[in-house]
Amino acid sequence: MPSFDDLALGDAATPSVIWSYWDKGPAKLSDFRRLCVDTWRAMNPDWEIRVLDSRSVWDVIQPSELPRQWRDMYVPFQADAVRLALLAKYGGVWMDPATICLKPLDWWFYGPIRSSERREGIAGFYFSSWGVEMGCSAEYVENWVLAARRAHPMILRWHALFNSFWDSVQVGTLEPISLPEHDMFRHIDLSFLQKFGQDMRSYLVMHACFKKMIDEDAEMRRIWQQDMLLFRADDHALWHVDEPDVQWSPEAAAKKWLGPLDEAWARHVLQHCPVLKFTKQFATLLDGEPRARLLGQSSPRCCLSAAFEAALAFPPAD
Question: At what angle do helices 75-89 and 153-166 cross, to 10 degrees?
Answer without folding.
Answer: 150
